Amino acid sequence: MRLRIIYCLVIFAAAAVFAACNAVDHDTKSIAKGPETVYADGARRVTIEEMEAMLKDGTAIVIDVRNQAMYDQGHIPGSRLIPAGEILNHIGELPRDKMIVTYCS
After folding, report:
1. Does the first or last residue of the chain, that is N or C, have fewer Cβ atoms within 10 Å of its Cβ?
2. CA-CA distance, 100 to 47, in Å (whole number)?
């Protein structure tokens, strides 16, 4: 039963990663801050500042879900490469006590 729950969570996380890869980038500096946007996929978005603070506190890890060639061209320092299609193969390696921040561009 526990494995089934973990499997469902991994599928949800993979769906969130794929949905986030299709997100449109916006210049948030020129947009007035209002209530937090709720996205259809339910995945939380974090700002660069939030991510940096979580990395500094040790409460998050960063996963790059692109392919090796794209990772080699440039990546967030300290990020770990796990291509989106291989997430299920590495589920046991991901920490349970930290926020997992994924990115694809």
Report:
1. N
2. 14
CATH code of the domain in which 95 resides? 3.40.250.10
Q: Which residues pair with 65 in a beta bridge?
A: none
CA atoms within 13 A on the CB side of 100: 23
Q: Classify residue 65 by burial, with Cβ atoms within 10 Å: 0-12, 13-18, 19+.
A: buried
What pTM, to 2 d.p., does this model score?
0.62
- Number of domains present in the structure of the chain: 1
* DSSP H/E element including 56: helix 48-57
Residue from 76, 47, 71 nearest 61 by CA: 76
Q: What's the domain range around 56?
A: 2-103
9, pLDDT greater than 70 = no
